[in-house]
Design brief:
445 residues, alpha/beta, Helicase, Ruva Protein, domain 3, 3 domains, five-stranded parallel sheet, 17 strands, elongated
């Protein structure tokens, strides 16, 4: 391990990860560092130590040492500077041969990785937000939703316990909306590495699709630039999730590993949406998460068959819309920190949701039209769903846009929107005596 084992949470938040001052402090073996420097130089063909240092995110003084070692091995050529220019380094034939061999086993090119030990230490150091969630912060995160206080309390407790939340309810009740906003109650940012080195191979951690960098921290102070400050991640995996997505993904072209979803979600939230509808067997997915949820540790398998231990420090939210009598493994549920069920909104909550949606769309609403809408629910004995105010309002806006008029909720528009949303699909019937080419057609809705 490098200098990070002495780092405290306060120091990390104030200064960031410390800059390694010696090659031994990088936390990686010298052969791996030399290989990284040689591959990077090969990608640049001719370059300076500073340029290689910028690509590897390591101090220039350390890169100077590595390049001088490669020069002594006669793998590269050093051209002395003229005037104020820096020394130039050029690949030699033996160097190109070595690079070809290296790329066959490990083609990773980018910021130098950190050690698995340093990564694990940093994740555990940052796992718990420095400030706990409160009712006020949770309400603020969900201020655009209409939710009962009982659910907000459950969410807050799940966040502070950093355990897990099993969220159930019928389709359209807002499970996805609740899941997407839960990170709004997690305080602070975290530092993650671009990549991790273990057993001679490299695992890429940073993912632009999952991680949002903190811009004001990108270039501040003297720190180890192999780490990047990001918002606490929110990773959502839906019905496409399979067991393969929970293990290391080997890139044949790059010759390195891509981190699985749970590794990318460390210190944040992992949402398993539409749980129970994945392609993998439900019981297999149950078994996959049981031990990580209980021990806060996970084990990943390398191509060699060796297993490595990695931290599992995230809030896991399972969202399902399957029926309540769906068979759920009791051993799995025992490891659930919290459970919540989203009920249909009350009449008052439905009206509040509709009014908020209408304001966002600048749509005029009157009590007569709202009463007409509620009567339609009652006449068809249809229960409310949280998504329906948005969907019906969108259809009213679409109709008004097509007509070229200002959006306004009227009984007539409600009936049209209702039939388009809840009605059956119309089918065209063709008369037996119809002409081959119709002169006119009538669409019914």
């Amino acid at each position: 391990m490098g200098p990070l084992n002495f780092l405290t949470r306060t120091e990390l938040e104030k200064y960031g990860p410390p800059t390694p001052e010696e090659l031994e402090g990088v936390g990686l073996s010298l052969p791996l560092l030399r290989d990284l420097a040689l591959k990077q130089l090969a990608a640049l063909h001719t370059s300076t130590a500073q340029r290689v240092a910028d690509e590897l995110r390591l101090p220039c003084a350390l890169i100077d040492e590595l390049l001088y070692q490669l020069y002594q091995e006669e793998l590269i050529e050093m051209r002395l500077p003229s005037g104020n220019n820096e020394s130039q380094y050029v690949m030699r034939k033996p160097g190109w041969k070595r690079v070809t061999q290296l790329r066959a086993n490990n083609g990773y090119l980018g910021p130098a990785p950190v050690s698995l030990a340093d990564y694990s230490y940093m994740i555990k150091l940052q796992a718990t937000p420095s400030r706990p969630a409160t009712l006020e912060t949770v309400k603020n995160a969900y201020k655009d939703l209409v939710l009962p206080d009982s659910l907000l309390y459950t969410i807050g407790c799940a966040i502070n316990s950093r355990s897990s939340l099993f969220l159930s309810g019928l389709p359209g009740m807002g499970k996805t909306a609740v899941s997407e906003r839960i990170n709004g109650s997690l305080f602070g940012s975290i530092w993650i590495p671009y990549a991790v080195a273990v057993e001679g191979v490299i695992i890429r951690i940073f993912d632009e699709d999952c991680h949002r960098p903190i811009r004001e921290k990108l270039d501040t102070g003297e720190r180890d630039h192999r780490w990047i400050a990001i918002e606490r991640p929110l990773v959502i995996a839906g019905a496409e999730l399979s067991l393969g997505h929970t293990d290391l993904a080997w890139s044949e072209s790059g010759r390195f590993y891509e981190a699985p979803v749970q590794l990318k979600a460390n210190c944040g939230t992992l949402v398993i949406d539409d749980f129970g509808r994945q392609r993998s067997q439900t019981r297999e997915l149950f078994n996959r998460w049981i031990m990580p949820l209980e021990r806060k540790l996970d084990y990943l398998t390398l191509r060699s068959g060796k297993k490595i231990e990695v931290p599992f420090e995230e809030l896991v939210l399972f969202a399902t819309n399957l029926e309540e009598d769906w068979p759920i493994d009791e051993a799995f549920l025992r490891r659930m920190g919290y459970r919540a069920h989203l009920e249909p909104p009350t009449t008052e909550a439905y009206v509040e949701i509709f009014n908020r949606v209408a304001r966002e769309r600048k749509m005029k609403v009157n009590q007569t039209s709202l009463h007409h809408l509620l009567k339609k629910y009652a006449s068809e004995k249809r229960s409310f769903r949280s998504c329906e105010p948005r969907d019906l309002a969108n259809r009213v806006v679409d109709i008004c846009s097509f007509r070229g008029c200002i959006p306004e909720l009227t009984p007539e528009l409600i009936d049209l929107a209702w039939n388009n949303y809840f009605g059956k699909i119309s089918r065209l019937s063709v008369r037996s005596d119809a002409a081959p080419i119709a002169e006119s057609a009538t669409a019914t809705s």
